[in-house]
Write a structure and sequence with these properties.
transmembrane; membrane; about 20% strand; alpha+beta; elongated; transmembrane helix; four-stranded antiparallel β-sheet
Length: about 200
């Protein structure tokens, strides 16, 4: 029976087993990786822009509400108009409430993933090969730790081949026994004749 393959990590683009690492259509046997390292690439400005947009979406309604209240108080308008402006400003400020949880969740996930291009390299046959690059710091950490576990796992001994059992030879049956008193025939009278000696002349 062959060795059982162990899967250390698998997603839509990367699979790491006890035999190889597969990234997209490319596969590299683990024994061909003589050295593995990682590096941090340039900053991903698209992710930073997304964080800025989320922060603006959170702050703008609150700023608009505060400005509305200040204007209502500072302007010389009637009490009814002041109340209407203050109420409208409060409603604008409260409008961010239902969206705050969603926007803050996206902001947290953005910080978990990071803002840099992270890369995993390997030395294969003396040539550096880029195995993976991603801006997702969480996924990068999972892939790199799984690759470390796969490379540091001790080699498993192969099971010894099973040989067919040798046939057992049949045991010999009971045969006739010679020289036994039970099988000597005694002549009539119960006497055993003595062997004849040399005759005297």
């Amino acid at each position: 029976m062959g060795d059982v393959m162990i899967t250390y990590y698998r997603d839509r683009g990367v699979q790491i087993t006890s035999a190889a690492i597969r990234v997209g259509p490319r596969a590299y046997p683990l024994e061909s990786l003589t050295r593995v390292w990682h590096e941090r690439g340039p900053r991903n400005w698209r992710i930073l822009a997304g964080r800025g947009a989320i922060a603006v979406a959170l702050v703008c309604p609150l700023v608009a509400a505060a400005l509305g209240i200040l204007l209502a108080v500072s302007l010389n308008i009637s009490v009814t108009a002041t109340i209407a402006v203050v109420a409208g400003s409060v409603l604008v400020g409260l409008a961010v409430g239902p969206l705050a949880d969603l926007l803050l969740g996206r902001l947290d996930r953005s910080y978990e993933r990071g803002a840099y291009d992270l890369r995993i390299w390997a030395d294969i046959g003396g040539v550096p090969v880029l195995l993976l690059h991603t801006a997702d710091a969480l996924r990068f950490g999972q892939v790199y730790r799984a690759l470390q576990r796969a490379l540091e796992a001790p080699p498993r001994p192969r099971p010894a081949p099973t040989l067919p059992a040798r046939p057992t030879p049949p045991s010999p049956g009971p045969g006739p026994r010679t020289g036994s008193a039970a099988h000597r025939r005694t002549p009539a009278g119960g006497r055993i004749p003595r062997p004849a000696g040399p005759r005297s002349t």
